[in-house]
Amino acid sequence: MSPRSLPPFAAVLLAGGRSRRMGMDKGRLDWQGQPLWQVQLAKLAALQPEPLLLAARDGQSFATTEATVLHDPPGEDLGPLPAIARCLRSVGRPLLVLAVDMPMMTSDFIRAHLLGSETPALPSTASIGLAYVGEPLCALYTPAMLPLIEIALASGQRSLQRLWAHAAEQGVAQLIALDDTQRAFFHNMNTPEDLRAAEPNVMQAASQSSDTRITLTRIASGQAEILEDHVACEEPLEISVEGRSVAVVMRTPGHDRELAAGFLVSEGVVQKPRDILEISQCPSVGDAKGNIVDVLLGGATVDWASLTRHVFSASSCGLCGKTSIDAIFQRFSPVHAEWKVVPALIASLPDKLRAEQATFSKTGGLHACALFDLAGHLIVVREDVGRHNALDKVLGYGLLHDLLPFNQHILLLSGRVSFEMIQKALAGGIAIVAAISAPSSLAIEFAQEAGQTLIGFLRGQTMNVYTHGQRVAE
């Protein structure tokens, strides 16, 4: 059931807490490259509430056109209940409440479990409030609860748990038991320790999860030695679009949102940030790792029959399901770049890439893709056990930061150049692709027809320019 099929509801992001234990405004924390309040507000906006509110304390400033900001009265410091009451009075309809410090909550979970599609306890009229036991800061409040809230405020009671218990007793709200698989979604951050504990699960930092320690035996000159070493991690990632599985890729964990976004760029599904409303990742719970991401599209049209790759996408695969160059040109136009770069600039790029390969320096087992501007400045580098995954992460970075097309950039690959790598580069609008290793014959053929400059065996001051060499000139 989508939000459109429910009775009208409003939503509010609670961002006015004092954050005393955190030591800074929690809404301003950096979360996956964005202020946390923006991340949370986008989750609510994806549900299409009417209206969308942001509750702030007096003096807080939020630059947003998506939501109406409601400030606390000057000097008020009474917790979230007064803000919820003001919002309920203002909207006069069911109110979805989300705290800014609950970053692992997703739009999909809210839609399924709080807006009614998977919660039979919620009446179709949405007249009864709904919350999980002990979790009142991601819950559905209703006007029927407002008299109880007013009584609580008048008597000086500020406890949300007590309010919900009373509302359930009065029959105007229902409390749902929380099972172990759902607890991670409600994880909230109150202290720097909470933030550090949450980061390995959701922050996009490949160095936190891209390698692991092992014990090995090294034999040299007949002598055996027990050593510890690092190896690159490889785990499956299932990419779903609007709840429908479209691919399973073997990848190095980290930057999974970028990987999913880049996959959809290279498949021709999305082109602009607005084409994606949200990318949510299942949190890690116990031994279950967050190896599923779901993409909620913002109006992009999906050809489901062609979206799934014809061949299982593994970290070592070569040609993955693209058998017709003509078919690709129906989706991606050849590049037309008139600019030039000097050979010395191209030759300087491998050293810059190696300096940024943190995990490769420890494991020796990862591919890397790096994007540079025409002055040789590094824009982004991504590592992965899969060459295609590393490039998808670069494309996803470009999409999520509204940098596509990369038509004033140079792509550098640490390994060999396959047909699909050139195809992905074309999806990103990249005119020069350079690699430290060799290209395949099909990659050369494709680059020639796509108008791309393809460089291989880039080592020291030497390089092989296979196609459109006019862009590499003194």
Can you characterise this structure?
By secondary structure, this protein is α/β, with parallel strands linked by helices. Helices cover 28% and strands 26% of the residues. The chain is built from 14 helices and 21 strands. Strands 5-4-1-6-8-7-9 form a seven-stranded mixed beta sheet, sandwiched between helices. The chain has a six-stranded mixed beta sheet with strand order 17-16-18-19-20-21. α12 packs parallel to α13. The relative contact order is 0.09.
Number of strands: 21
Task: Work out the helix count.
Answer: 14
Q: Which structural class should the secondary elements be placed in? A: alpha/beta
> What share of the residues does DSSP label as strand, in percent?
25-35%
Unreliable segments of 5+ consecutive residues = 117-125, 200-209, 309-324
Strand count, sense and barrel status of the largest sheet are: 7 strands, mixed
Shape assignment: elongated
Mean pLDDT across residues: 80
Please give the alpha-carbon distance between the first and last residues: 61 Å
Roughly what percent helix?
25-40%
Name the strands of the widest sheet in spatial order: 5-4-1-6-8-7-9
Radius of gyration from the alpha-carbon trace, in angstroms: 26 Å
Give keywords.
six-stranded mixed β-sheet, 474 residues, alpha/beta
List the topology elements.
Blueprint: E1 10-14, E2 30-31, E3 34-35, H1 36-45, E4 52-56, E5 68-71, H2 80-91, E6 95-99, H3 107-113, E7 129-132, E8 135-141, H4 146-154, H5 160-169, E9 173-176, H6 192-202, E10 211-220, E11 223-232, E12 235-241, E13 244-251, H7 256-266, E14 276-281, E15 292-297, H8 304-307, H9 325-329, H10 343-356, H11 358-363, E16 367-373, E17 378-384, H12 387-400, E18 409-413, H13 419-427, E19 432-435, H14 441-450, E20 453-459, E21 462-467
Parallel strand pairs: 1-4, 1-6, 4-5, 7-9, 12-15, 18-19, 19-20
Antiparallel strand pairs: 2-3, 6-8, 7-8, 10-11, 12-13, 14-15, 16-17, 16-18, 20-21
